[in-house]
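Quick one - inputs below.
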Amino acid sequence: MKRIALTAENLCKTYGKDNTKVHALNDVSLTLHAGEIAALLGPSGAGKSTLLTSLGLIQQPDSGKIIIGDETVFDNGYKTNIRAFRRNHIGFVFQKANLLPFLSAVDNVRLAMEINDVSGKAAKERAEELLAKFDLSGRKNFMPKELSGGQQQRVAIARALANTPELLLADEPTAALDSVMGRKVMELLKQVAHEHNTGVLVVTHDHRAIDVFDRIWVMEDGRIKEK
Amino acid sequence: MMNLAFRDIKYNFGRFLLTTAGISLLLMVVMGMGGIYRGLIQEATLIIDRSGADIWVVQRNTKGPFAEVSKLPRQMEYRLEAIDGVDSAEPFVSHTVQRDFQKRVLRLTIQGLPDNGAWLPIIQGRALQNGHYEMLADKSAKLPVGTTLLLGKDTFTVVGITDRMNSPAGDAMVFVSLNDALTIQFDTPAEAIRNERNARLRRFDNSSYGSTSVDHGETLSSESARPAALPEQQISAVLLKVNPAYSVEEIMAKLKTLPDITAYTSQEQRQIMLSGFVARSRKQLLLFRTILITVSTVVMTLILYTLTLDKLHSIAMLKLIGAGNSVIIGMIMQQSLAIGVLAFGIARFFGQWVYPHFPRRVVLVSGDLWLLFGIVIGISILASVAGIIKAMRTNAGEVLS
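Output:
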């Protein structure tokens, strides 16, 4: 039986008050297994980003429960040091690569590990290994501004995997890329899910690469309508 | 762990350098003001310290000769030298002149020397050799050896250059023989002498001398018998050296019995200068320094805050990947300290080339520099606070914005 990477139970999140009240998450529940890549689709304002940031412990839901791996991290309130938990268990990839502009590609990846108390030499070796895996060995010492959009996104994925997270959350990772590069990145994420046994949840509008996903969820009005 | 502050500085090196250069200019002014204050003290007490006198005798009830005018009769030195326990008594003559010289205004403090001035810090030329018409000039007067200058009715030739000999007012000092100094000070225009001579002749013509029998009593009390209206030569002070067998207090006690003079020990004379002449300048400079340090702090705070604002996205990303607050605080504070310390270093380095061109002497004392360095560290930490508060309030979710 496959290990469960993420479980969300009855998540609710409301913005505003009285007449302006919006239910961004309305009793959302889902389960994502390790080694599985899932897509979260839906129109703008459906609550995709709220769900992603809630699962990523960036934004606190009003109620519900989140279990990542074996640990209950949210149960009507945070149950752990969220920053330390994020560091060890969750990786993020965004529409923009969000690399630190003053660090080279290899140092961007290395930093994620050094923050997690991995020693300098070990961190450097693993960072180089990850970059090599994503065909970036020749670009490892380049600054972000010297890399193309696709290369930057691959560095961001390498950074997200640096601490071998159980869960990888991606928010529109191909939105800034052309179709060819977009597909490559999606396939890369699938490869990551399968090879690293990581649960990968991707918020996307890009239907061109829909065949890459093991599971697809569609959100509308704060609910998961279709699975 | 890699040093993020250093990496960011390296990445934005041009901006960092410009910022640091700007702060260093402010610090250079702060440093210079401290140096000017020390220079004021040094110049104010230079002659007191260099003279080697134990006691300064001045006009009764005055705080001369520097803080106010003091006049003593020329022969006072002989009276004082006769006091038991006084090793030597030397007249002190000092006055300031202003001349137009080679299209520039030349302010000189003329100091009468009882000797040839060989004890002065002569860096070029020689000490005085002749009793008249030679002078030693401080290098700040910019009068090279061989320069001739008309003072009074006589032309003086510069025979030697001294180093860092300025009056309490900051004017360059020139040293001439004591008699020459008195001649320059009491120089009377030829016209005034002729007028006085004619007045005497008129008084004589109008008198009854030769036409009546001599009334010695009347003659002695007549106008022509009175001293000339022109001033007699006076000195500013008399400098006493006390015989080692006597204490300064003993001689001071004797001098207090003399009704026409006031005496100060060198320490008292120093105190008169520091509490009166220098105190106001000190307060003014202190106020300027405080304002400049405040301005430096505000400028540094603004710069650090702006630098932090530019990095907010990176800071949010750091939070998102789990960096602790210490990593973020460390990055901002290290950059602030780097700016402060480097700016101090630049100010110190370039200051040594700039300060000698200041019109007043700038003396950098290591104690003052260490104190300023401590203040710079303090304001660097203080300046980073606003940036740190902003960074701490930044949410990891801002990466998405």
